[in-house]
Amino acid sequence: MNKYGSSLEKVLWSIAIPGFGQFLNKKYIKGIVLILLEFIINVKANINTLIVLSFYGQTELAVQQADYQWLMFYPCVYIYSIWDAYRDSRENVPPMLSIPFAMAAYIETIGVIYSKTFRINGVLLGPIFLPMICIFVGLGLGFIIRSLIIKKGL
Predict the structure, then answer these.
(1) What is the rounded end-to-end Cα distance, in angstroms, of the chain?
(2) Fewer CB within 10 Å, N- or C-terminus of the chain?
(3) Could you read off the pLDDT tens digit of each residue along the chain, which spans 154 residues?
(4) Other C-beta atoms within 10 Å of 103: how many?
(5) In this structure, what DSSP letter does residue 5 have?
């Protein structure tokens, strides 16, 4: 733990609102930029409405309300904020830790792309739940790729 708190604390705050972890790391400019990006993308993509509709099971309506041109930006800002808060909170960052986070952002973006049509057992997951699932798939693939790269000594 560094003098500003634990890495987990910063990651959890970044999961809640991109930029908050940066504030805890005393990286105020970066935090302001990430919060502004989060706010602009959230408003333009209609993310809060999408979350509410998705949790109420109105996924088709969430798909209709989504502005996909803006929603496509969110995964990279969101995952970068989490990774950056963790990285800045550590003195010794494990090697190639960016790989799982970058893969999570890529795969989550693919989840956004397919969220209009992708179904599991006939259930449309939509613009909130499919990308959320894709984060974990991307992290898993990223950690596998990272371990293979480290093992090969690349």
Answers:
(1) 29
(2) C
(3) 555 568 999 999 999 999 999 999 999 999 999 999 999 999 999 999 999 999 999 999 999 999 999 999 999 999 999 999 999 999 888 899 999 999 999 999 999 999 999 999 999 999 999 999 999 999 999 999 999 999 988 7
(4) 22
(5) B
Give the list of residues 6+ apart from residue 117 with CB closer than 8 angstroms, or none. Answer: 124
pTM of the model: 0.90
Tokens describing residue 37: 């990006």
C-alpha 58/C-alpha 56 separation (Å) is 6
Domain boundaries, the chain: 7-152
DSSP 17: S
What token pair was written down for 123? 């259930």
| Token pair belonging to 55 | 């949790």
How far is residue 130's CA from residue 112's CA, in Å, rounded to a whole number?
A: 7
Give the C-alpha separation, 151 to 96, whole Å: 12
Size of the chain, expressed as the number of residues it contains = 154
- Residue 85 tokens, joined: 């808060």
